Amino acid sequence: MAKDNEKTNELVVGVDLGGTKILAAVITADGKILGQAKRKTKPEAGTESVIDRIVKTVDDALGSAKLTRSDVRAVGIGAPGPIDPDTGTVLMAPNLNGWENVALAKMLRDQLDLPIFLDNDVNVGTLGEYVYGAGRGASDVIGVFVGTGVGGGLIIGGQLRSGARHAAGEIGHMIVLADGPFCGCGNRGCIEALASRTAIVQSLRMAVLSGRKTVLADALAGGGVERLSSGALAQAWKANDTLTVEVLSRVQHYLGLHIASLVNFMDPELIVLGGGVIEALGEDFLPPIRRVAYQHFTQRRDANRVKIVMSQLGDNAGILGAAVTARFHLNS
Amino acid sequence: MAKDNEKTNELVVGVDLGGTKILAAVITADGKILGQAKRKTKPEAGTESVIDRIVKTVDDALGSAKLTRSDVRAVGIGAPGPIDPDTGTVLMAPNLNGWENVALAKMLRDQLDLPIFLDNDVNVGTLGEYVYGAGRGASDVIGVFVGTGVGGGLIIGGQLRSGARHAAGEIGHMIVLADGPFCGCGNRGCIEALASRTAIVQSLRMAVLSGRKTVLADALAGGGVERLSSGALAQAWKANDTLTVEVLSRVQHYLGLHIASLVNFMDPELIVLGGGVIEALGEDFLPPIRRVAYQHFTQRRDANRVKIVMSQLGDNAGILGAAVTARFHLNS
Prior knowledge:
2 copies of one chain form a homodimer.
Chain A: H1 5-8, E1 12-17, E2 21-27, E3 33-40, H2 47-64, E4 75-79, E5 83-84, E6 89-93, E7 99-102, H3 104-112, E8 116-120, H4 121-132, E9 141-146, E10 150-156, E11 159-160, H5 192-195, H6 197-209, H7 217-220, H8 230-238, H9 242-266, E12 270-274, H10 276-281, H11 286-295, E13 307-310, H12 317-330
């Protein structure tokens, strides 16, 4: 139990609910993590089980900070798929074994007896970067997260925009190559079909089938996209594996074009790049993306005022952003 | 001279400054046009001459409403190219004989002795639709204007967004077909290179060169893009000219994909389609665009809450929006 009530009153728990893991952390108003915990999500065990695992992870995080539920003011959660933040409902989450209209906030409130605030994971990640990371001091920020898919978050005038149907920020399904390769969403030529880890694995596999050589051949043989981790991909790229470099240079090209489109439309101050693929490849992956993007700005004047940078919070963007979400609702 | 001072105090003049013509109108607070005037821009005669022609057009509009300069509170202007609304400067306008950093507001203030407020023409047109036209009652609106080029305006939370560098809304240079046909901006595969009148004329010309037949063959022979008016194009399309229908069905496809990208990113309530090409082709041109767009929404739920509609103000969107711009600044 913490001693200083005035201080502990300001604490919230941030939760990052992913398809594979749950992260939870107790977070101070200035973004300091006092304690955290991690657990597998196991969505295949059903909704009740996932709720139970979230509750345990929250309690573990509190325990590791030597705190109890009564020491924190609220829990913020970032969850996958479109969310209705007003009702705290996960509308649709293929990653969570196909959740549909799950009243996550209510279910957690019943168990934790704390105010629960919910938003989309990528929105929350962008918010984390905006308040505690690469976006500090900016007003208009777009987050571009490249992992198994491509997601995005949109902050305009210092406010997260969720759109008329809570569907804003789906930048992964903006079309960069009309009538191009099929995307998981059923459409064609989305940036997700060109630059996600799923798209990268598909390109590498096709190349291997056509006889091209790569150090990743074994890792690519059989299985789904999860067979090739972002880490293994990054290792092959850093080792200058010819095919990997070739495939990833197309990815850099498409990401550059996509970012230019976003900038030509929104003219933000900052694009934050994050997600598993970007984190694994690191800062060295960015210069060609920047070069293509800047080349395609319609307005070249003051181009250098638009920054294209790496996420600063990495894996912690989700929990920190979830804490911001909770704090925002508490104070509004 | 008007009699009711209380009412005339609310009047402003809206000016739409285009590369070919200047429109000006005296406009009431509820969007009624009391008098208007029109004049050729003739940008090739130089900046001073254009300023002079704007002043005359404003005075003509006042005269046709039997008013004088002292009867109006301000002049709002929509001008082409990126604008700095804070300083009232046209930063760059290829359509105006290559204007660069022209202090338009100051130059007009010196001559008209009235407050002058300036913004980008397409932003201003979107604002006109938002306040007096198709966008009434909405909160998040994107304007898509298809003419010689493709321009756009962006209203979020009821506010026109101009971006960090006053460059927001350049939707014409979002890339829909990576590495596709060259665009006037020097890049490739921008929606402007696929769906503008310039792009349409180029496609038709290539087809004619390759031996395809069209009723537009004579109109297309020699000269620039201005050889084929939007009206002639619409006539051929309505007469079911095979080549015209074929070329325009690609345009509908690309516009549909582009609008889907905008919706997937911003999730607005409304897309307003306007500009010379759309106006000439009319309401019948929209259903295939809508079909493709809705098909490519990532979030299909509540898709019908996103409206894709024709501009309601047509040629008057510019002058009405310019009046809104002036009013907004007077009241802020």
